[in-house]
Amino acid sequence: MSSRSLSRSTGDFNDLNDFDDLHGSGEPEGTVDPVDPNGLLSAHGWDDGWAAAFDEPGRDGLVPARVVRIDRGRCDLVTAVGPARAESTTTPGACTGDWAALRDGAHPRLAALLPRRTAIVRATASRDSHSQVLAANVDTVVLAVSAGGSLDAGRLERLLALAWESGARPVVALTKIDQAADPEALLEEATALAPGADVVATSALNGEGVDALTALLSGTVVLLGTSGAGKSTLGNALLGEEALATGDIRAVDGKGRHTTVRRELLPLPQGGVLIDTPGLRGVGLFEASDGLGQVFADIEELAEECRFADCAHQAEPGCAVLAAIESGALPERRLTSYRKLLRENAWAAARTDARLRAEQASRWKSIARTQRAAYRFRDRQR
């Protein structure tokens, strides 16, 4: 791919120097990869696994690229020689973080997406049977949770289920810890809600916990959280510059404004890349059984000790879960949340199955109509 053709398609990037300021020059170190001679792709997560996934028959003339941003039907990408901009409508499922096969030319376009290793998927805001991919090929999910007020346990459990289900590793970042009335109690509460996940108290204002959080990050990192949780402010602390827009909390209702309006991928100074996302108003689960099992591992472990294998943990004799609640070892709120999220997940799965059955039935009806029309045409020709 030539620099000349890239400079015609960069959109937001005026020239390659602007791109280098944001994404690094990618100077090679050690052995030079013929596909990535400047090291620009590897700086954005390219490795031998992606090279093997890209190396398939029929991709002559195509080049690997990673999706940096999607906006208004256009897709900004990083390639081995710099930035490119393509129409995303040719591959409507593309998402920030995807690796793609790009066709060069006066009008670059995505020819194919490489199979995703991980994906952050939630139910759509309309809560229909469809899903929305928030970020692709993520290694670490940082869940930004404000410590400025009381901890919303149910919301944190939802975010954790979303993160675990993706296949990435979740890390809980308690933001604005300098505003917490009792930081130690809040940290203890969050840790109890997040079995298996690291929990770090942070303050972007005074830098507390930022180094500890940075040490836990690897590969492609995505920031998730509600509006006003301090997500973009924390992102700037990790990036070491004011690259992400931030805003204040609304005084009228205490909710945050949407300062991040689209998902965007940026290189981290210590290596790896960061994907910032718009604040989540709702966190609907979409086929997250494995994620729920991880979030509520304490309940599922207790359930193995119940007298009956199909125990519903309601009034059955010998229920280890109810016994734990009675002894105070398990909060009743946690069991209530577990049941609620299981019902929601089962409902979403049923809706998805129903939609797929309806789409399949519609497809067969269309085939049957086409066949009948063909038979009628054949009969008229006799």
In short:
Helices cover 35% and strands 20% of the residues. With 382 residues, it is α/β, with parallel strands linked by helices.
* CATH architecture annotation of the largest domain: 3-Layer(aba) Sandwich
Structure classification = alpha/beta
Which whole number gives the mean pLDDT?
82
Strand order, largest beta sheet: 10-9-8-11-13-12
Poorly predicted parts = 1-16, 249-258
Briefly note the CATH topology name of the largest domain.
Answer: Rossmann fold
Shape: flat
User: What is the helix tally?
Assistant: 11
- How far the N terminus sits from the C terminus, by CA atoms, comes to 56 Å
Assign the CATH superfamily of the largest domain.
P-loop containing nucleotide triphosphate hydrolases
Helix content: 25-40%
Query: What's the CATH C level of the largest domain?
Result: Alpha Beta
The total strand number stands at 13
Total count of domains: 2
Helix and strand element order: HHHEEEEEEEEHEHEHEHEEHHHH
Keywords: Cytoplasm, GTP-binding, Hydrolase, Metal-binding, Nucleotide-binding, Ribosome biogenesis, RNA-binding, rRNA-binding, Zinc
Subunit structure: Monomer. Associates with 30S ribosomal subunit, binds 16S rRNA.
Cofactor: Zn(2+)
Domain CP-type G: 130-283
Provide keyphrases for this structure:
35% helix, nucleotide-binding, cytoplasm, 13 strands, RNA-binding, metal-binding, 382 residues, alpha/beta, flat, Rossmann fold, 5-stranded antiparallel sheet
